[in-house]
Design a protein that fits this description.
The protein is of the alpha+beta class. The protein has helices spanning 2-15, 61-87, 113-120, 142-159, 175-195, 206-211, 216-230, 235-246, 251-258, 262-276, 283-295, and strands spanning 23-26, 32-34, 42-48, 51-57, 102-107, 125-127, 133-137, 165-168, 199-201.
């Protein structure tokens, strides 16, 4: 990636005077991206923005690995800070960026770089100062980005089993749009724990953001009022409410997911209405239930 290489050269030029060890870096095809000819030097694998590179240095094998980790950490930390400054408007963005693109922010205690690179084959994976990972993917379809996010979360859950939150940004065609996308994704990421969601998108959270703007005391009173009514119902009946809401009040789909006949579902809804005074077939009552589900 041209723009990454340009930033890389500037970063490394800044630390060379501080090091006595000369080194070079080549990409996976053996092309030199930094330094001079060092054919007889020792080699070590390093990762820059998630992609694998080869570090060449004329040093003993016993310290080569530690030197590689030092260079790797230096580059990734400063590349992440550089991109962050560009997104926040603190620095002029580099040329050659691959627009249009989609943006993901990933918060996880796990070490995800290897998995992300294997899945996406991209060298646009940046470590942010707060341990969040920024992944930029070259695509122009938001639905595709959402599908990728779900597949990524499934892979993380299957292979690493760590709590992960993915925030989806909008599709960007310029640095100005990507800056806005990044800021919105940050807000959604901060908001995610409040709604107990693993995948969030700022533009899809209007309802949730509105609910959480309601004063705490008002929300508490509303939750207690609905909860008292739902406590009268058994476990299967409460599950029925949740499934109907998750199916957007599509009764046929809800019946299929509950493995019951549609008439049986209608009977359960009658039972819920008689016990609680809330009929999910009535739009206002369904909204009350949805609000309860979101803020309880």
């Amino acid at each position: 990636m041209i723009f990454v290489q340009n930033i890389l050269n500037k970063l490394l030029d800044g630390i060379i005077p501080c090091l006595e060890t000369k080194f070079a870096i080549t990409d996976k095809k053996g092309h030199l991206i930094y330094g001079g000819d060092m054919e007889k030097a020792m080699q070590s694998s390093i990762r820059i923005c998630g992609a694998k590179f080869t570090l060449l240095a004329d040093i003993p094998p016993s310290i080569l690995k530690d030197f590689g980790l030092l260079v790797e950490d230096y580059i990734n930390t400063r590349l992440g800070s550089k991109i962050l400054d560009c997104l926040l408007g603190k620095e002029n963005p580099p040329e050659g960026f691959p627009f249009p693109c989609g943006l993901l922010l990933i918060k996880s205690p796990g070490k995800l770089e290897d998995l992300l690179y294997e899945l996406f084959k991209t060298d646009l994976i940046f470590s942010m100062p707060d341990t969040t990972l920024l992944v930029i993917l070259q695509l122009d379809n938001l639905n595709e980005l959402k599908e990728i996010s779900q597949a990524l979360l499934d892979s993380i859950n299957e292979e690493l089993c760590v709590k992960t939150i993915i925030s989806i940004g909008r599709i960007s065609h310029s640095w100005e749009e990507m800056s806005m996308s990044f800021k919105e994704a940050q807000k959604a990421l901060d908001f995610a724990p409040k709604i107990n969601s693993s995948i969030v998108s700022y533009n899809d959270m209007i309802f949730e953001r509105l609910l959480l703007s309601i004063p705490n005391e008002t929300r508490k009173n509303f939750v207690n009022e609905i909860k008292q009514k739902l406590d009268l119902l058994d476990k299967d009946t409460r599950k029925t409410i949740r499934v109907v809401l998750d199916c957007n009040l599509n009764m046929s789909e809800a019946a299929r997911k509950l493995y019951i006949h549609r008439n049986t579902l209608m009977y359960r809804l009658d039972k819920i209405a008689n016990s609680t005074g809330l009929d999910l077939r009535n739009f206002k009552d369904a909204v009350k239930m949805e609000i309860f589900k979101e803020i309880q």
